[in-house]
Structures are given as structure tokens and as C-alpha cells.
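Two folds, back to back.
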Amino acid sequence: MPEFQPFVMEQMMSEWENAVDVNLSESGVHPMTVGELLAMDGREMNDLADIGMFYPQANGTPELRQTIAALYDGAAADNVLVTIGAAEANYLAITTFLEPGDEVVMVMPNYMQIWGIAKNRGCRIREVHLDVDNDWALDASALAEAVTAETKMIVVVNPNNPTGRIMAEAEMDAVVAAAERVGAWLLADEVYRGAERERDEETPSFFGRYDKVLAQGSMSKAYGLPGLRVGWTVGPAEAVAAMWRRHEYTTISLSMLSDHLTRTALSPTVRPQILARTRLRLKGGYGLLGEWLSEQDGVFTGTPPDAAAITFLKYDLPVNSTEWMESLRDESSVLIVPGDHFGLDQHIRVSFALPEAELLDGLARISDSVQKLKG
């Protein structure tokens, strides 16, 4: 068996995100409360009193799966598997469709949970890197060269984590063409769909562009409801059914309460209100971040994110990114994500869709550290 590869970013966050004063490692929009969610539907907390605490249908209730399917052109309830977060959806996709020794092509940077699961599965990973000097654009020719007759899966994150970049249509077409040429699965992490910062148009899904797409979604990032622990895969019905069989060995089902509240959140009445809240927080938070960056004397550079509640900044300071994260954590009680966690030192990932006072406090603590490092 291969040596176990821990998920280093999640290990850091699970140990420290609740132990610091300011958590700027968070990757989603600041969470909603149950009361806020119900108020958007014209309801009160008492309306939850009669929900039975029994097992819901293991793959998600038909009502929830149909609600999710409606977000994807051409999808039906049978195309949807509901999971415990997108984390389980990713785990099931890798363990269902890949065997030890299989070749996986990953467009990097990427959400490294998928990379780690594939490593622990014994897969061979070929990396294709977005062009940091060209606003994180995809090199289509490099992708085509990396994909071989042995490639079993291509993995992309769109909108991207950690950069927040949205692929252009031509780039999406190039990814699909590479997968279709060799018959590989296309695993598309799309958890930031709906968290567009500068446009109201939602990022298009890879689902429906090719018959071997697995599109992953979640209630955590764009919706600000991570505590529901709800994710999903949308894909071919036979593939989703195969993942469901593995799902019965892992978590079996959501809670009935999570199923109910997710249906509420994704309803035609409530979902637009949640996404409006999301975009308001993204615009306000990034405005504050932009003002702060302009005061940092060129220490930070980077491409503004098209979507997501995070930004990926390159810095000009004499410190390794993991060492700086540890210093900020221990000396300033603020948590960031080091670029090392994505294989890119001299970068940090910082969240900005937080309450104003919390964001400004965290950025001020980083400024203090910058001055010390410059001195």
C-alpha cells in the first residue's frame, strides 16, 4: 500500500480554525443562521418542530434530488446523489471509478483533498499547471499533452480554489475535448458556482457537455450553509447509482433536518435571496480587501478572483508560506492558508467574505506581521 498522504490543509484547519481569534482560512461566505434561512421562506423556528428524526432516503429524498437536478440543464433526480458535503462526493468518485495504478490528470492548483484521495488510492497523478503569469489561464496544449490513452480521470475546479478564476468557454471546451478523446471521466468540483463576484450570471456547469462528467456541488461555499454538511454529485444515472452503493458503506444518509433545510435553501423562492446575500458580501469584503492591499506598498500581487470568497496572493517577503502561517497563528492569533498547501510557496490564501469588523481585524494583524518581516 502507498504511504498515507494526510490532507494537510484540512488537518491545519481542523486543529486551529476554532482556536484563533480571526479565521481567514475559511473558504466560504460567512455562514447564515437557521433563523435567517427560515425568515427568507417566511417561516419561524417553530416550523421545524414536527420534522421527524428518522432516516431519509439514503441517496437524498426525491424532492431534494429533483430540486438539485433543476440547477443543471438536462438533469433529472436519477442523475443526483446527495452526500455528506462535497468531501464525501469527491471520495466516492475516486474510489468508485479509479483503481490503484490508474492515471489521473489534475489541473493545478486544485482542491487538494482530491489529490490526496487519489494518492492514497495508489493512483499516478500527472499535473497540469494554470499559468500564474497569464491570470491563471489554462494551457490547453499542455493539458492535451498530459492526457494519454492511460488517463482514467481529469480533475478540475471551476471556479478555481484557491485562485477564484472562472474558466472561459474555450478552456472548458478544451477540457472536455481532452477527456472525450481518451474516454476519461471528468471530475468537476463546482462548489463555487453561484459565488460570482462581479457578475450575476452563474458559472456554467460541465454537466451535459460530455457523457462522463461528475459535477460536484455543496451548500458550504456559495450558500453559506456549511453546517448542513450537504453536497452532491450530478452525473450519469448508472455512475451515480454505483457511487450510491459505496455511499451505503460510508455515511448512509443525511440527517432529515439537513435534507429539509437544503430543500428550503435551494427552492426557487429562497435560493435567489441567498445568492444575493452572497454577492453582497463578496463585493463588500473584496472592496475592503482591495483598500487594504493598496496600503501594503506592493508587498502583495495577484489576479482578482472572478468568483469565490477567497483570494490567492503572491507576496514579496523573506519567509516561507508555512512558516508565516505558523507565525501569524501563534503570535497574532489569525489563520491563513499557506501556498505550500497548493504546491506554490510565496503565496497565501485569504478569505474576505466575513463580517467587516472581523475582516479588518484580521488584515490589521497581517499588516503588523508584514512590517516586522520588512524590518
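---
second:
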Amino acid sequence: MQRSTWRQVALVAAIIGAGVSAYLLVEYVNGSGGICLTGSGCDEVRLSAFAYPLSIPMPLYGLVFYLVAAWTAWRTVDPTPILGLPSRSALLLLGVVGVGVSAFLTGAEAFVIHSFCTWCLAQAAASLVLFAGAIGVWTSGEEEPPARSEGSRRAQRRAAREIDSQRASLRRSALYASSAMVILVVGLLLGNALGQAATNLPTASSGASLAPESAPREGSGPVTVVEFSDFQCPACAAVSPELQQLVDDGSITLVYRYFPLPQHQNAVLAARAAAAAQRQDKFWPMHDSLFTTQTSWENLSNDQAMQYFTNLATGVGLDVSTWQADINSSSVGAAVQADADAAGSLQLPGTPSIFIDGQPYNGSLSLDGLRAAVTAVGG
């Protein structure tokens, strides 16, 4: 392909990356994972330690990077250097940086967070295409138009016409790509808003059925918070200390419901381990132990996980022989399944799913966001 074509590839990839970053930034600010095609992966990535380097949302870095890359791709039409660096070299350098950062973040999702964010993967794909376009611009054999200050007037006019023609072509590509991304981002945001509105339609009986007497509860605050949670969900582990803080300061009564997700291989066994501990009034110590050690047992085989949970049971002071009998009992299995069935009947999208005094909560899972919602309900 000619250099002009590779230039368009790089520009369109940068615009797509900027659009995806803009969508992610809105969702980060709103405290919602939005529409995620990888289950609860978006929320889990957003709540990880990689989401806010230097306390700045990662999508903001992405947005700035892709806008700079788009501007640089545009500038490669004209051979004028950028900060003393040839424009083609600057674009290639940005392509290398983009691929390197994307590889690191995708690796973190795969091996540290163990969850994938759909839109982070889309950004990674955009960075790969940008890199390919930058290589194409760098290696293609098309001659650069002569500088305007060189040669005859005819050569200068020809160079100016060539630059204008290439810029017109880039302008069309940028317009089409930008329009498509605006439609996509606005559509995603509207879809998410409509989805939240549908979720926020409580029934008259929903508040009573959300917190059955048999469910584990902690605290005596005036506001009841019901959490449908999965012990193998990183987002649930992240929000657990925030909810505990609200319990400790007397703001809420916390009710726990089991919602083990099918994609988490040890989630059901972990839920049964906690339900069996509840029979000895040790649910919350087991709850805390399961979350704090999540990364140690999440990838174990069933037998290894059972041994690990047995060690946790010993650590929290359970009668282990009784606990082992309970964890395999049909009644404990039925208790976990009843909660999962309730989550299904409520059409909950994933974990954690939180209700504050019977109202679905879709805001930020930070302590400040939760506290503000609890205060608004409790007055």
C-alpha cells in the first residue's frame, strides 16, 4: 500500500482508540462499567489497582494518547519535524508506546486481574492497527512531496496540491471515523442509561424479598444494604471493605446473598464454604478470609480448593468435621442455589449487585459513592 493509505489507517485507528477511551472515561467518572460483553470484566478491571495510575483514570491517558496520535498521523502529510523529530518517526514512536502499554495492560488483565474488559481489548486492537499504520508510513516507498521552500515555483505548487489532496483524503477518513465513533459512543451511553432505568423499576414486594431472615447480616444501621456477591469476583473483593466501613460506622445493616457466577470455577464451592460456616455463626470471618485470599485459591482445582477452604475453616475457629459435613449437605447447597435463583429472577447482570433499601444501586463502588447513596436514602 502507498504511504497515503497507511497514513489513513493510522489516523482512523487513533480516532477509534480515542472514541473508546472517551466512552470508558465517561463510565469511569459515572462509576459504572456500562455495557460490557465480557461479563463483569469491565467492573473488575475498573476496580483494580491498574485503573487509576497516579489517581488519574486510565481512559484519560488513553484519550490524550490517541488524540496526539491522530494529530501526528495528520502531520505526516507535511515533512515539517515535530519537536525536531521527523513526523514519520514521531508516529512510529507513538505506535511502539501504544503497543507496549496495551500489551502490559492486557497481560495484567490476563494474569493479575483474571478478567477482561471489552473496551480495553478494543483499545488494544486500535493500538495494534495504529502501530501497523505507523510502520506502513515509515517503510512505504512513496516519495514525500518537496518542501515548499525548495525547487521551482511549479514544484512548490505541485507539492502544495499534493499536500492539499492528501489532507482532503485524510479529512474525509477522519470525518467518517469520527461520525461512526460518535454514533457508537452515544448509542452505548444511551443503551446503558436505558438499561439502568429498566433496572431501577422496583416492585412493591422487592424490598421484603431481597433480605430474607435466613440470609447472613451484619450491623444495625438504619439503611439495609443487600449485596448479591461472588467470592471469586475481584470487584466483590474490592467493594467488601467499603461496605464493611459503612457497617462499622453504624450507617448500614449489610445482608449478604450468594450469587456464584458460572465462569468462576471455585465460586460455588466458596459459597458453600461460607454457608457451612454460617451454621456455626462464623459466616463473616469466613467471608473476610475468602475475599482476602481470593487470588490464592481462585485457580486451584476442586480438590485443592477444598483443602484450602478447610485450612481457612481451621483458621477462623470452626469445628472442621462439622463444617466438612455441612459443606457437602443438600441443605447448604439448596441455600446457595436459592440465592442464585433469586438473582436470576431479578435478572441481575453480574456481581456485585447492590440494593440500598430495596433500590438497585448503579453508582460508584467507592466508599464515597456508597456513603453518598446511603446518606441520600437514610436522610
